[in-house]
Amino acid sequence: MLLLFWGLTGCSLTPGRHGKQTEKGKASWYGNEYHGRPTASGEVFDENDLTAAHAKYPFGTIVRVKNLNNGKTVDVRINDRGPTRGGRIIDLSKAAARQIDMIREGVVPVRIEVLRWGRR
Q: Between 18 and 7, where is the model more confident?
């Protein structure tokens, strides 16, 4: 009966047009040594912008990152590819990492939620 209700109201059980809408895993951050270099999207990386690297989400996708150690959140725009090691799901710019208070720890458990999909 519940499935019939969802079907009639237009609700969907699928995660979204590009895949998962939420993920849990580890986040790291990058900054100083990459500042001023080109990202995978072609933008110049600025450690002071609220941006991030993700392996698969389309460039321009906006995600909310929640630090599961302290509950702080930050919204970032995906403009690079990564992370490349350690089983991490997202690399944040230094400014984004500062907002969720993870600079000192370096790697923290996070939940990321897609707020708006970018273009492929």
A: 18
